TrEMBL record:
GO terms for biological process: defense response to bacterium; innate immune response-activating signaling pathway; plant-type hypersensitive response. Pfam families: LRR_14, NB-ARC, Rx_N, WHD_DRP. Residues 824-847 are annotated as: Disordered. This is AAA+ ATPase domain-containing protein. It comes from Eragrostis curvula (weeping love grass).
Amino acid sequence: MDLVTGAMGSLVPKLLQLLGDEYNLQKGVRTQVRSLVDELRSMHVALGKVSQVPHDRLDPQLKLWASEVREASYDMEDVIDTFFVRVDGGRQSVHADKGKVERLLEKIGNLFSLSKLKARRDIAGAIEGIKKQVDEIAKRRDRYKLDDLVANSSTVTSIDPRVLSLHTKVTDLVAVNEPRDELIKTLTMGDNDASNKKMKIVSIVGSGGLGKTTLAKVVYDKLTVDTNIHCKAFVPVGQKPELKKVLRDILLALDKGYYMNKTNFMILDEGQLISEIQDFLKEKITHLMYFIVIDDIWAVPEWNAIRTALEDKNLGSKIIITTRRNDVAQLAHCTYQIKPLLPDTSKALFYGRIFGSQDKCPECFSEISDKILKKCGGVPLAIINIASLLANKLDHITEWQEVCDSIGSGLSSSEDMYNNMGKILSLSYYDLPPHMKTCFIYLGIYPEDHEIRRDELIWKWICEGFIQAQKKDDDLFELGLSYFNDLINRSLVQPAGTDVLNDACCVHDMILDLICSLSKEEIFFTKSDDIEQVVSSKNKKLRRLSLQNINWPRNGASQVRSVAVFRPSIDSLPSFSCFEMLRVLDLEGCYLNNCQDSMLYVGNLIHLRYLGLRRTGLKQVPKGIEKLHFLEVFKMQWDIELPPYIFELQRLMCLEGFRCRPRPVNLLRNLPSLKELSNLYVDNESAGVVEELGHLTMLTHLEIQIKLEMDQSISNALINSLGKLPKLQYLYVDNDSVRSNLIMWERWRPPPYLRSLQICHDFSLPTLPKWISHASLPQITGLYLEERGSPPWYGGADASARARGALNAPAPLFAGEQGISHPIRPRRHASSPYPAQRPPPQTRNYSGEQCRCEEASFPAAAIRGAPPLLHAHAPHSLPPRFHLLRARALGFPLRRPQVRQLLRRALRGQPVKPAPLVLFHRPPRQLTDPLLPALFAVEARKMECTGG
């Protein structure tokens, strides 16, 4: 399904569902449904062709026809969903485990139910009306020969695109050293002069896509490491910022632990937040300098407000601002004008993304590459975007020529650079397969610079109906995960998150501009400022709302399918009774203490599939929620008991909260569709839930916190329950019991699809379970064993031998307080000597921007069977010498003398030099940063050669 097809992708399967025996439709109605399905399938194919043509190249009649089909599909789906609710509350698919007699009695009851008989009569009339509407639309297609218009439109080859591909980050590898060093020199000049410790403010200014953010992050990372700055913050602003959010982000970056728990922190006004920052800098870090980066600021007033909060303590504090505006840049003490890449640097970036290195480019692609690079004008974002597009077009040089022709005259001036960006970026959009276009456009509901959590996004895609199973056994979440990974590999979104699990993404502001322009053409989603304009139009309807400034629609809400609110403080909520067709409601992060009464209406949203209430301040689960029989995803406020009526929601696939405590515990088995259960809290009053877990056989993701003393019976129940979960892929167990130990895990046999295992215990590790091996964990990409009571890795010869087996698996083994995971697996290219990695794996670095994994720099034979890297967070976490030999990259707190001493002994005892070591003491989320070899090479060589 894609943007122009509306609800067509989910509509056809629902029509086919109507033909099931349980709905007992009359013969004539069933015939109409079959005919309707055939016609809609034909339209779906036609719309698929339309979606491949740039919007500005479509004939006006074709645009109008496509718009009619899209709107009609939404209305049709609303009618059918309403029928499902009236007939069986949406619960028809979860009763497969009922006995034959019970199912027969239920069917007989349904046949003679007056309300359901009326629903069947109503759906018969609705189907007849839909059939007439579809027939008229089909006749219009034939009357105006719209199929020919699609063919003629698609013959146009000059798309005249302009933008670029987002991941500026790769510029780190090819052009960052000189400007980085220049900026650091400017920021640190005079630091040794005690009489001149005034705060320094440096601005980085330049057009979009040149890498301002990347450069700022590289300087930020390097300077905080080298000078040991502990008080630091990197805060994005954006074109239309909410100043209160920016000020809150500064405080959270400075001391997240304190401010996340501060009473009423989320409802402080601008003046209070400015005072809070001033007090923090004045009182809490009295004798410390600070280093803050304010990224992507567009207006002088916003900068002045932020500047007011940042007091000069005469301790040599440093501030970097990045901006496109010269008037903002000139307010700094010093300005750095960022420039386009030089030709040789552009080539290194371009060829590195496609072939791995410049010398691997086939001669036949050299000339056309030069033409493409010339049109990119040295803009990193453009180079990466085009390179990501061409990385999948290595079979025919003619495809490269078509892309080159489409770029038009290129980005020769700053005005052309911005004006052409949308069309160059649109090349990557139109290259997406139809089913991914809608998923990509949906990213636009999030605000600028918002970090989008991967799992949340995928669940929303599912609840919106964007992801449809192609085969009977398809897992919708797995399909969504592949879509997410593909968007990253195509450089359309940037990996982000708090670690390198690729569990989040962000969207470059220029790509967000493209998304918003595409959405406006189709009214796919509507933001706060555009609501009145859409409502006042006769031919447009509100379908999805993204509210960043609270502006609830006064009219036109009856057909809204999705509402996402991105504002911490809400004074009021509307009566949700007018949102009759709402499928997705996300209020996460909105403080709702003043809106308790409005939440009473949530139970009337009978079509709701997704309800997000995390971090809202609500004290209990909204009443009436048991009526939401279509609900598939429920994300709750922290520390809330699960009331009994939650377990009536038998379609639930994802249940997430913090310290969720089910009461009573024996109802958990009533959720047979559950795939993700997060932060389940088990204490003395809910110990029985451990046994209940074994009934959730569809679970793929389980997080459980055990806060009670585990005796033998509870330990056995846990292992037995986990053994009944054959589809489990992610398991996190946090156990505070001092009685239990890892020996109990010996009896467990991991499921074959397990990818990530995290076990945290308050005891020592006498031995590793025998199943920690590549043979038992063939799919593992992350293994994390934390022992809070004593040092890991020192379990004797047996533990060492078994850890060796795990390290032979092509995945990292985590030790210590934090860990990392494999990069996203890119699309396979048969011609690659590194089979699954052409282009090389794309990972996330500390700056949150996409990059090539350094693994590609080493021969496959040199690293085959070894983990990409091993992270040990504390000195006592250092593994035995064997693991040093196997790991390619190691991360340790270098400034701790104990670690340096341990490393010195280990390095001296190596008979063979290992692959290049990367030694550093940054958090593990930086471990795959390709800049590390450059940033820490001197220190690594010093350590290796002198034992320093």
